[in-house]
Write a structure and sequence with these properties.
Layout: H1 4-13, H2 18-26, H3 35-40
Length: 43
């Protein structure tokens, strides 16, 4: 079962700019950038 915190983080990812979303979906996110950090503290 998913908890509210996880769902909230994933919803935050939908507010990222399209170019950053594309990088995430293409799997080309730089190693020094953590997906969790983007989800919790979006630019």
């Amino acid at each position: 079962m998913l908890n509210r915190s996880y769902i909230s983080c994933m919803i935050n990812l939908t507010t990222l700019p399209p170019d950053i979303q594309a990088v995430i979906l293409n799997g080309t996110l730089p190693e020094e950038v953590a997906l969790f950090d983007l989800a919790t503290d979006a630019p």
